[in-house]
């Protein structure tokens, strides 16, 4: 394979890719959880939550591809197995939750995990002048903050 010469040294590329792989693992884990909740939600808000969860998991499914491709563009291997994701994710697995309010709370917490982990990458990304990753992170944070706000709003009386 030819040498990567994109203006970011190898050590920074590896560290940024490791951080992105964590965001990838979190995103994929939240995708799985959201999809499960979509299938299993019940109660008076079924229709609206079923649709909302579908919108959310569909967006997350697209996001994993974008994040993984950025890892590859940095010259590193993107994580791609359940066990690899489980080893680094901060998202708790669906443990059989059946209460819609608890589902919303857990998805909110998952959104916030991704926001924090994406935001934690900024100092390194900025120091490495990695504008492409900064842009990706900005877009992801903006989307996850909006989704978190919407979920949080459902929990208010």
Automatic annotation (TrEMBL):
Pfam families in alphabetical order: Ferritin
Domain of life: Bacteria
Domain Ferritin/DPS positions: 18-157
Molecular function GO labels: ferric iron binding; oxidoreductase activity, acting on metal ions
Classification via Gene3D superfamilies: 1.20.1260.10
SUPFAM superfamilies found in the cross-reference section: Ferritin-like
Family membership noted in the UniProt record: Belongs to the Dps family.
Protein name as annotated: Ferritin/DPS domain-containing protein
